[in-house]
Amino acid sequence: MNKNFVAYQKLKLSDSRKFKAGEYVVIVGGKLFSKGKNLVKILNEAQKKHPQDIPLVTKVPHKGVFVFFYD
Amino acid sequence: MIEFYYQEEYSDKFGAILRPVAPILITNRLKSNKFILATMYIDSGADVTMIPLKAGEVLGFTYDTKKIFHMHGISGSLPCILEKAKLKIGNKLIHADITWALTDEAPFLLGRRNVFKNFKIAFDEAEKKIFFK
Fold first, then answer.
1. Which of A4, B30, B45, B109 sits a CA distance of 20 to 30 A from B22?
2. A37, A40, A68: residue with CB nearest B46
3. Could you tell me how far CA A68 lies from the centroid of its own chain?
4. Distance (Å, whole) CA A56 – CA A13
5. ipTM value
6. What is the CATH number of the domain that holds B42?
7. Contact A69/B47, CB-based, under 8 Å?
8. pTM for the structure as a whole
9. Is position B119 within any domain?
Protein backbone atom coordinates (compact mmCIF):
# COMPACT_ATOMS: atom_id res chain seq x y z
CA MET A 1 0.00 0.00 0.00
CA ASN A 2 1.18 3.51 -0.83
CA LYS A 3 2.88 5.31 2.09
CA ASN A 4 0.65 8.35 1.68
CA PHE A 5 -2.47 6.20 2.00
CA VAL A 6 -1.01 4.51 5.09
CA ALA A 7 -0.42 7.97 6.58
CA TYR A 8 -4.02 8.92 5.72
CA GLN A 9 -5.34 5.84 7.53
CA LYS A 10 -3.48 6.90 10.67
CA LEU A 11 -4.70 10.50 10.62
CA LYS A 12 -7.43 11.25 13.12
CA LEU A 13 -9.43 13.59 10.92
CA SER A 14 -12.20 13.66 13.52
CA ASP A 15 -9.92 15.52 15.95
CA SER A 16 -11.48 18.97 15.78
CA ARG A 17 -8.49 20.51 17.61
CA LYS A 18 -6.34 19.69 14.56
CA PHE A 19 -8.75 19.61 11.61
CA LYS A 20 -11.73 21.66 10.49
CA ALA A 21 -14.65 19.92 8.80
CA GLY A 22 -14.66 20.52 5.06
CA GLU A 23 -11.04 21.55 4.70
CA TYR A 24 -8.63 19.77 2.36
CA VAL A 25 -5.75 17.75 3.75
CA VAL A 26 -2.70 16.94 1.63
CA ILE A 27 -0.36 14.07 2.46
CA VAL A 28 2.99 13.64 0.73
CA GLY A 29 6.23 11.86 1.55
CA GLY A 30 4.25 9.69 3.95
CA LYS A 31 3.37 12.68 6.14
CA LEU A 32 0.73 15.33 6.57
CA PHE A 33 1.97 18.20 4.39
CA SER A 34 -0.65 20.89 4.86
CA LYS A 35 -4.37 21.57 5.20
CA GLY A 36 -6.72 24.37 4.31
CA LYS A 37 -9.22 25.65 1.77
CA ASN A 38 -6.81 26.64 -1.02
CA LEU A 39 -6.11 23.22 -2.53
CA VAL A 40 -4.42 24.57 -5.69
CA LYS A 41 -1.82 26.47 -3.65
CA ILE A 42 -1.18 23.58 -1.25
CA LEU A 43 -0.67 21.10 -4.10
CA ASN A 44 1.69 23.47 -5.94
CA GLU A 45 3.82 23.74 -2.80
CA ALA A 46 3.70 19.96 -2.22
CA GLN A 47 4.81 19.22 -5.78
CA LYS A 48 7.71 21.70 -5.53
CA LYS A 49 8.97 20.10 -2.33
CA HIS A 50 8.26 16.48 -3.34
CA PRO A 51 8.51 16.39 -7.15
CA GLN A 52 8.84 12.59 -7.26
CA ASP A 53 5.74 11.88 -5.20
CA ILE A 54 2.03 12.16 -5.99
CA PRO A 55 0.31 13.94 -3.10
CA LEU A 56 -2.81 12.33 -1.67
CA VAL A 57 -5.76 14.66 -1.16
CA THR A 58 -8.53 14.05 1.32
CA LYS A 59 -11.24 16.15 2.94
CA VAL A 60 -12.06 16.39 6.62
CA PRO A 61 -15.53 14.85 6.95
CA HIS A 62 -18.38 16.57 8.72
CA LYS A 63 -19.55 14.85 11.89
CA GLY A 64 -23.09 14.29 10.72
CA VAL A 65 -24.57 11.06 9.48
CA PHE A 66 -23.90 10.65 5.76
CA VAL A 67 -26.58 9.43 3.39
CA PHE A 68 -25.10 10.07 -0.03
CA PHE A 69 -26.76 9.60 -3.30
CA TYR A 70 -26.74 11.86 -6.31
CA ASP A 71 -28.78 11.54 -9.44
CA MET B 1 -8.45 -8.29 -7.48
CA ILE B 2 -8.08 -4.87 -5.92
CA GLU B 3 -8.52 -4.36 -2.20
CA PHE B 4 -9.57 -1.15 -0.51
CA TYR B 5 -10.23 -0.44 3.13
CA TYR B 6 -12.82 1.04 5.40
CA GLN B 7 -11.72 4.18 7.19
CA GLU B 8 -12.85 4.87 10.72
CA GLU B 9 -14.46 8.29 10.94
CA TYR B 10 -16.71 9.91 13.49
CA SER B 11 -20.38 10.77 13.57
CA ASP B 12 -22.03 12.85 16.30
CA LYS B 13 -24.95 10.43 16.33
CA PHE B 14 -23.18 7.06 16.17
CA GLY B 15 -19.63 7.76 17.36
CA ALA B 16 -16.93 5.83 15.46
CA ILE B 17 -18.21 4.82 12.05
CA LEU B 18 -16.61 2.90 9.17
CA ARG B 19 -16.78 4.29 5.65
CA PRO B 20 -15.55 2.59 2.45
CA VAL B 21 -12.72 4.60 0.92
CA ALA B 22 -10.49 4.17 -2.12
CA PRO B 23 -7.52 6.26 -3.31
CA ILE B 24 -8.29 7.09 -6.94
CA LEU B 25 -6.09 8.91 -9.45
CA ILE B 26 -8.31 11.24 -11.48
CA THR B 27 -6.97 12.73 -14.71
CA ASN B 28 -8.58 15.35 -16.95
CA ARG B 29 -9.16 13.44 -20.20
CA LEU B 30 -8.56 16.60 -22.26
CA LYS B 31 -5.47 17.77 -20.33
CA SER B 32 -3.50 14.68 -19.35
CA ASN B 33 -0.96 16.68 -17.31
CA LYS B 34 -3.74 17.68 -14.90
CA PHE B 35 -4.44 15.04 -12.26
CA ILE B 36 -5.25 14.58 -8.62
CA LEU B 37 -4.99 11.57 -6.31
CA ALA B 38 -7.85 11.66 -3.83
CA THR B 39 -9.58 9.48 -1.28
CA MET B 40 -13.12 8.81 -2.45
CA TYR B 41 -16.10 7.27 -0.71
CA ILE B 42 -17.22 4.20 -2.65
CA ASP B 43 -20.90 5.10 -3.06
CA SER B 44 -23.13 2.53 -4.74
CA GLY B 45 -26.03 4.97 -4.31
CA ALA B 46 -24.40 7.67 -6.43
CA ASP B 47 -25.35 7.59 -10.10
CA VAL B 48 -22.07 9.24 -11.02
CA THR B 49 -18.66 10.11 -9.58
CA MET B 50 -18.40 13.54 -8.00
CA ILE B 51 -15.53 15.81 -7.04
CA PRO B 52 -15.64 19.12 -5.16
CA LEU B 53 -14.93 22.58 -6.55
CA LYS B 54 -11.23 23.01 -5.78
CA ALA B 55 -10.41 19.51 -7.01
CA GLY B 56 -11.92 20.44 -10.37
CA GLU B 57 -9.78 23.57 -10.47
CA VAL B 58 -6.68 21.42 -9.91
CA LEU B 59 -7.80 19.33 -12.89
CA GLY B 60 -8.07 22.44 -15.06
CA PHE B 61 -11.83 22.22 -15.57
CA THR B 62 -13.30 25.49 -16.76
CA TYR B 63 -16.43 27.15 -15.52
CA ASP B 64 -19.15 27.51 -18.14
CA THR B 65 -22.58 28.67 -16.97
CA LYS B 66 -24.24 27.03 -19.99
CA LYS B 67 -23.12 23.59 -18.82
CA ILE B 68 -24.41 23.84 -15.24
CA PHE B 69 -27.07 21.38 -14.12
CA HIS B 70 -28.27 20.28 -10.70
CA MET B 71 -27.63 16.95 -9.00
CA HIS B 72 -30.14 15.86 -6.39
CA GLY B 73 -29.47 14.15 -3.09
CA ILE B 74 -31.21 13.67 0.24
CA SER B 75 -30.34 17.12 1.53
CA GLY B 76 -31.07 19.14 -1.60
CA SER B 77 -29.33 19.86 -4.86
CA LEU B 78 -25.88 20.90 -5.99
CA PRO B 79 -24.85 22.85 -9.09
CA CYS B 80 -22.50 20.71 -11.19
CA ILE B 81 -20.81 20.44 -14.57
CA LEU B 82 -20.33 17.12 -16.34
CA GLU B 83 -16.68 16.51 -17.26
CA LYS B 84 -14.63 13.79 -18.90
CA ALA B 85 -11.99 12.07 -16.83
CA LYS B 86 -9.83 9.00 -16.54
CA LEU B 87 -9.98 7.14 -13.25
CA LYS B 88 -7.18 4.83 -12.18
CA ILE B 89 -8.66 2.22 -9.87
CA GLY B 90 -5.88 -0.10 -8.78
CA ASN B 91 -4.12 -0.79 -12.09
CA LYS B 92 -7.26 -0.40 -14.18
CA LEU B 93 -7.76 2.79 -16.19
CA ILE B 94 -11.36 3.78 -16.87
CA HIS B 95 -12.80 6.56 -19.00
CA ALA B 96 -15.64 8.06 -17.01
CA ASP B 97 -18.05 10.95 -16.98
CA ILE B 98 -17.70 12.69 -13.65
CA THR B 99 -19.53 15.60 -12.09
CA TRP B 100 -17.63 18.63 -10.92
CA ALA B 101 -19.60 20.10 -8.03
CA LEU B 102 -19.39 23.89 -8.02
CA THR B 103 -19.09 23.98 -4.25
CA ASP B 104 -16.56 22.72 -1.75
CA GLU B 105 -19.38 21.34 0.39
CA ALA B 106 -19.41 18.29 -1.88
CA PRO B 107 -17.42 15.17 -0.96
CA PHE B 108 -15.32 13.00 -3.27
CA LEU B 109 -17.69 10.19 -4.32
CA LEU B 110 -16.90 7.21 -6.51
CA GLY B 111 -20.26 6.59 -8.19
CA ARG B 112 -21.58 3.90 -10.51
CA ARG B 113 -21.55 5.46 -13.99
CA ASN B 114 -18.78 3.99 -16.19
CA VAL B 115 -17.17 2.49 -13.06
CA PHE B 116 -19.19 -0.24 -11.37
CA LYS B 117 -19.87 -2.16 -14.58
CA ASN B 118 -16.15 -2.91 -14.81
CA PHE B 119 -16.03 -4.78 -11.53
CA LYS B 120 -17.79 -7.11 -9.16
CA ILE B 121 -17.64 -5.12 -5.94
CA ALA B 122 -17.95 -6.76 -2.53
CA PHE B 123 -18.22 -4.84 0.73
CA ASP B 124 -16.87 -6.82 3.69
CA GLU B 125 -17.42 -4.47 6.60
CA ALA B 126 -16.58 -7.13 9.20
CA GLU B 127 -13.08 -7.39 7.69
CA LYS B 128 -12.99 -3.64 6.93
CA LYS B 129 -12.26 -4.35 3.25
CA ILE B 130 -13.84 -3.70 -0.14
CA PHE B 131 -12.95 -5.94 -3.07
CA PHE B 132 -13.04 -4.91 -6.73
CA LYS B 133 -12.85 -8.05 -8.92
1. B30
2. A68
3. 20
4. 14
5. 0.93
6. 2.40.70.10
7. yes
8. 0.93
9. yes
